[in-house]
Design goal:
single chain, mainly beta, Immunoglobulin-like, 3 domains, 2 helices, 16 strands, 43% strand, elongated
Length: 256
């Protein structure tokens, strides 16, 4: 036995065409039933790389690669792509998983900045972990609240260059409005690298419990940095307590 259905595709209305009883008036429906047979409309819109390219771009971006993976037992999959030029790259991941006969779909997005060179931070800074890909450092200041930050690059060549180093306190006045942050000033320094030099050390104050630490190398007239690095810097979280005015400084302990 064969049943035939008519399906209307339109900008304002789409669906199976059905008619009122004893009438020529029609309407559209997502579900039709004829005898023991039923048919339901189901649509899925998965843009291919060409559509994504046309939607996002018409400018400086392009779709570099698209791959389909089956995850391992722990639900992990790895993709390796070699960037062709420095800039910002976007990765979009869509996942499908069937549980108890129901297909579930997830979507993720990640941004990464690609530069010609790299910067690493050291000295008194100790990397403890990462948070969403951002390194989390700790440091123990001396009695004057000073720490030494070592900036290392992999730039080779005969030209001199300058690296900017910044320590920026993260505001905590919203959760802790009574905190005295008067000595949490922003700090920055320009580090001059002569030809052949790859490491410079700068001394900075560490007063706030949580800080953003960043270093960037930007050539004059350039639209994109030659190298950039940033992370979260926690002030000696191993010795901070929850007592009295030091309550705010206990936040790093919770994060770790």
């Amino acid at each position: 036995m064969t049943h035939s259905f008519n399906y209307l595709v339109g900008d304002g209305e789409s669906g199976f065409i059905e008619y009122e009883d004893e009438s020529e008036e029609s309407y559209t429906s997502d579900w039709v039933e004829e005898g023991w047979c039923g048919l339901q409309t189901f649509e899925r819109h998965l843009p291919n790389p060409e559509i994504i390219d046309a939607f996002i771009t018409d400018g400086p971006f392009e779709v570099m690669d698209e791959q389909i993976f089956i995850t391992e037992a722990d639900g992990m999959a790895n993709m390796t792509t070699t960037p062709s030029l420095p800039g910002v790259y976007i990765s979009v991941v869509q996942t499908k998983h069937v549980r108890d006969g129901v297909e579930m779909t997830g979507l993720g997005l990640n941004l990464v900045a690609v530069t010609e060179a790299t910067i690493s931070l050291g000295g008194d800074l100790v990397e403890q972990t990462t948070f969403a890909g951002i390194p989390v450092y700790t440091a123990e200041p001396n009695s004057d609240n000073l720490i030494q930050i070592e900036v290392t690059t992999d730039i080779e060549g005969d030209e001199d260059y300058t690296a900017m180093l910044m320590v920026l306190p993260l505001p905590l006045d919203v959760p802790f409005p009574d905190i005295d942050s008067s000595d949490w000033g922003e700090q920055s320094a320009e580090l001059e690298f002569e030809s052949g030099t790859t490491t410079r050390t700068e001394e900075m104050y560490l007063n706030a419990p949580m800080n953003l630490v960043a270093s960037i190398i930007m050539e004059e007239g350039a639209l994109w940095p030659t190298a950039i690095h940033f992370g979260v810097l926690l002030n000696d979280p191993g010795t901070l307590t929850f007592d009295g005015e030091e309550l705010a400084q206990a936040i790093p302990q919770i994060l770790l």
